[in-house]
Amino acid sequence: MGLICIVSQNSKQTYTLTLEDSYYFSERKLIKASPIVLEFYEDTLFVGFVEFDIRVFNKNSYITFYVSAEVRGKGYGKRMLEFALSYARNEMNLHRLTAEVYEYNIPSIKLLESVGFELEGRLREAKYHEGRYWDILVFGKILNT
Ligand SMILES: CC(C)(COP(=O)(O)OP(=O)(O)OC[C@H]1O[C@@H](n2cnc3c(N)ncnc32)[C@H](O)[C@@H]1OP(=O)(O)O)[C@@H](O)C(=O)NCCC(=O)NCCS
């Protein structure tokens, strides 16, 4: 019998993962938590956000962050991330944070390093931008140290 492949975006197939199968899959196969977003304001002016994309079972969260263009370079990014680290540790009970950054995003890399994230790895040529491939850098921080 030949092997048949069906290509689709939304599989209609249902299948059962055994408990043992689940040990080898990402927990995202079982659970996708809604993102948690911290929004920051200076008085009524929105200055930025930190978003948590949480891996519940593993107490890990991917984070993304953004500071409004007109207030960059004034320390808001660092203050926001310091608050987010404290909130993640003391209120969300997370064990670690992960951030993926394009290698050309120097402000973001500097910001992560300034609050204690360490470079843990690189996804080689995983980002296409302006006609060439760039690496994605994986930064991490363990929260109980
Ligand atoms: C990355 C970003 C959040 C930085 O915010 P910010 O408020 O400008 O950063 P801060 O003023 O708090 O600076 C934090 C640190 O980064 C460094 N930094 C900030 N901008 C920099 C730049 N353009 N070049 C070099 N270093 C820079 C600062 O020197 C500071 O380090 P220090 O404390 O050791 O001096 C902001 O540029 C941004 O929103 N960029 C677009 C969105 C983005 O790239 N998000 C990340 C994807 S997840």
How would you describe this structure in keywords?
about 140 residues; alpha+beta; Aminopeptidase; six-stranded mixed β-sheet; 3 helices; globular; binds coenzyme A; acyltransferase activity, transferring groups other than amino-acyl groups; Acyl_CoA_acyltransferase; GNAT_dom
Explain how this protein is built.
The chain has 145 residues and is an alpha+beta fold. It is 19% helix and 39% strand. Strands 1-2-3-4-6-5 form a six-stranded mixed β-sheet, covered by helices on one side. The radius of gyration is 19 Å and the shape is globular. The mean pLDDT is 96. Bound molecules: coenzyme A (COA). Residues 64-67, 72-78, 101, 105-108, 110-111, 114 line the site of coenzyme A.
Summarize the structure.
This protein is α+β, with helices and mostly antiparallel strands. The chain has helices at residues 19-22, 76-90, 106-114, and strands at residues 36-42, 45-55, 60-67, 96-102, 118-129, 132-142.
The ligands found in this model are: coenzyme A
Q: Could you report the average pLDDT, rounded to the nearest whole number? A: 96
Q: Could you state the CATH homologous superfamily? A: Gcn5-related N-acetyltransferase (GNAT)
What is the fold named in CATH at topology level? Aminopeptidase
* Count of structural domains: 1
Counting H and I runs of at least 4 residues, what is the number of helices? 3
User: What portion of the residues fall into strands of 2 or more residues?
Assistant: 35-45%
Q: SS-based structural class?
A: alpha+beta
Beginning-to-end CA distance, first to last residue: 56 Å
Please give the share of residues in helix: 10-25%
